[in-house]
Amino acid sequence: MPRRRSPVFEHFTCFKDAQGNDKAQCKHCGLQLGANTKNGTSNLRTHVRICKARDGESSHPTSSPLPLPLPQLLELQPSGPGESSDREPAGLDKDEASRDLARMIALHGYDPSVVEDDYFRSFVRRLNPQFEVPSREAIEKMCAGIFRDSWKVLDFSNVYGSGKASLAVGEVKAIQSLQTGQVVYVTSHSIDGHWNLHRVVEHVCVALPVGGYYHVPLLRVPMVALDDAVDHITGYIAYEDQLASSYEFDLFMVAGEMTGHINHLELKNCMEQKRENKIYYSSTFIDHVLHSIARCLLPDPCFANSIFDSVDDYLISLRGTHQELLTQLGLAKLGLLDDPWEYGESWYSCYCCLEIHAQAVPPNSGSYTKQLLHTLWREIYRAIKTVSDSNRPTSNLCLQVLFKVRDVLQSQLSKAPDGAHADNYSGFGNKSVSDVLSEALETVDKAIQDSYLVWSIPLVLDPRYKLRYIKDKFEGAFVSEAEKYVSEVRRKTKELYISYIEAGDEGDSGGIIEVEDMAVDSSNTASAQAWDELDGYLQDSPARQTEGFDILNWWKVHGSVQYPTVARMARDALAMPTCSKLTSDQIAFIKSMLRGYNCWWR
């Protein structure tokens, strides 16, 4: 059967040149391109997407107006009926306008060199010819003051209250320093006495792949060798532990990245050696686990290319900007695919194409494998968005999203084709669909087994679920071993609770006490009350499942009144870091630090 001619050729006139080579001339702009289909049609597709003449801007590439030279642009002044080019708008405060510009640069992490850009200066002059853009030196001085003032506004006694804080250690993928260095951050996560979640950048350093220790006094940013990074970070956390007494908080948990330049096993061991009090430690961010599950589902390159090609052919028929295309495809209203390059993952590129394909063709018209991947990757994508983009990304979400992904994988595995025709439904090379789904399911189960104690505590403290949800999910996932996991969660919850009772009695937020070391005497009033409150919380009816349920508000309004000690646990446990993704404000803050605005930073 002859291969169907690609729709891209509708935009070209094909011919052979004098040497007999296949050529294609664009019908819109006249540009000639190679058209040997043995090498594919990607160059033709690319041209159709970027051809300005196709959008009606011109009929020939030389007919579009040439841009004005820069000097001529700078000489243009605003003019119009009744306007004067030298008139200053009423009420203009030049100093305050300069400070607004500095605030934008300092608090959003922009490069201060923008004030030296000729086009930016031309833009400002068009708005008001009398406003003089500050020099880069002046704007950086203002930025430093604004950065200092924004930090001084933070009331750390309010941020940390009298509770505990969790720390996250990771690498800023969006920022490269000195081209060879990796920016490493430490952020603190805590919930204050008013039940507001705070995520604060505590420390930044640049890790270089060479030996030795470096420091740049001018910028106040430590620069360390990768092999010294763990010692540097551990030393900082130890310092932070001492500093904690000033704000009356203790460390509850430290989270790190599963992959990257920082050896988190070494970091965990160093912390255990340097701390007397026990803390929770997780070597995995939940979003990293979800990405690793998604990567298990990647098809073979040929099948992936077929996904890309089918979408390319469809997009050629559409016009507009990226956002306009999302609107046409019905994806904008779903909040999907806002940034196709957000994760830098191959699976996400495939998922973007499958999502577009799902909007472009009738339901269930794609191949079995395409529909399968679309279903699974969409669930994983939603899980990542849940733990990273939530307004209040509390840690009770982590185990929930893992079990949701597991349920979808298990459901699809039970329906996977088998027998003699199983290979006909695969796009995974030598692997069958069942093999791929089983591998992904094993990845989920291993992640749950490795970190279930860390993430079960905040889930128990979700009043909608408590222990009942954990019991049901573990029985469904691990069957005969479920009771072992549930018993361990129950034991750890009581162990943690006793430590809070003891800390309250002694006025000290000390380390976690092992439950085996504390004999609970029913004649001891404090102990009896302790068990009564915890058991009361666990046995009381769960909170109603409502859309937009606000767990922090529930604990503020209801839980802190009914279960005051359990509420203290919830404040600390729910603040544990959920993912590696920094907010845009945090990235801007780090960029400002790297530019030397942190001269007054503690």
Automatic annotation (TrEMBL):
Q: Does the keyword Zinc apply?
A: yes
Q: Where in the cell is it found?
A: Nucleus
Q: Which residues form the BED-type domain?
A: 3-58
Kindly list the GO CC terms recorded for this protein: nucleus
A Gene Ontology annotation in the biological process aspect, one of them, is:
post-embryonic development
The segment annotated Disordered runs over 54-92
Q: Give the keywords, sorted.
A: DNA-binding, Metal-binding, Nucleus, Transcription, Transcription regulation, Zinc, Zinc-finger
Q: Hydrolase: present as a keyword of the record?
A: no
Query: What superkingdom does the record give?
Result: Eukaryota
Q: Which SUPFAM superfamilies match?
A: beta-beta-alpha zinc fingers (SSF57667), Ribonuclease H-like (SSF53098)
- State how it assembles: Homodimer.
Q: Which PANTHER family match?
A: ZINC FINGER BED DOMAIN-CONTAINING PROTEIN 39, ZINC FINGER BED DOMAIN-CONTAINING PROTEIN 4
What is the name of this protein? BED-type domain-containing protein
Q: Which organism is it from?
A: Urochloa decumbens
